[in-house]
Amino acid sequence: MSQPRFVAPRGDASERIALEIRRYLARAGMRPGDRLGTEQELADEFGVSRPTLREAVRILGSAHLVRTTRGPGGGVFVASTANEGMSRTLSESIATMLEMDDVSLRQLLEARIHLEVPIAGLAARNAGAETAAQLAAAIEDARGNNPASDEFRLADARFHRVLAAAAGNQLLAAFTRWTLDVLQPTLIQTIGEAIDGDAILGQHEEILRAVRRNQQRAAERAMKRHIEYVAVVLDAHERREP
Q: How does pLDDT run across 24-36, given as a tens digit for each residue?
């Protein structure tokens, strides 16, 4: 008889199984689209009822880690990696906080400084020619577009995604994806028309120069100035509001 893939730890049954499946996904290096099995197959492996297994799958589904399909060939599939799932959950939580006025855009910008400044430094330390080329391409794609436009926003987001990938720290990158998923669109909607596009591109070019030269501290200072500029624009906008 083959050994089961999963050995559930102690605790509430559905939560225990959800935790062990999460651990298995990480250990096995499973990728989005990989199939775990049917609910019945997984319930048999754990020695639990299908309702208990179904609740564990629901817990993992709410974290965007697995999805379930019905019919022939259906079953439980990997929906995203742990980092991707965490990023989506964090983005949704922050979006809800913004909607409920539990957190302000200013507070999110302050958090962004503490996350993205070290990311810029790590990117500069680790980056090669390919990273510099991708950053330069993002700058050029934004050039000539209104800062409030989707074209500018998407190119700007790509610039920051390239930096996050080059930093080589998956946890930092996961924590900062909410910048692109939640904060960036909300900021553009709020202050897009007040932003000086040339100023933003100049700040991006300053970061790019530091990355090309592998100057970690210079990249950190340039990123800090970049985010502080956005904060100044936001402050001016809020002072004008009735």
A: 877 887 888 889 8
Rounded Cα distance between 107 and 186, Å, is: 13
Question: Are residues 46 and 127 located together in one domain of the fold?
Answer: no
- In whole angstroms, give the CA distance from residue 138 to residue 141: 5
Interval 198-210 mean pLDDT: 97
Distance between CA atoms of 57 and 40, rounded to whole angstroms?
12
| Pair 186, 234: CB distance under 8 Å | no
Neighbours of 100 (CB within 10 A): 8
Phi/psi of residue 216, nearest 5 degrees: -65, -50
Residue 141 or 185, more confident: 141
68 vs 72: CA distance, rounded Å: 12
Based on the number of CB atoms within 10 Å of its own CB, is 85 exposed (0-12), middle (13-18) or buried (19 or more)?
buried
Residue 1 lies in a domain: no
Q: Identify whether the C-beta of residue 179 lies closer than 8 Å to the C-beta of residue 114.
A: no
Cα(5)–Cα(105) distance, rounded to whole angstroms? 45
Where does a domain end: 48, 80, 112?
Answer: 80
- Is residue 95 predicted with pLDDT exceeding 80? no
Q: What is the pLDDT of residue 1?
A: 37
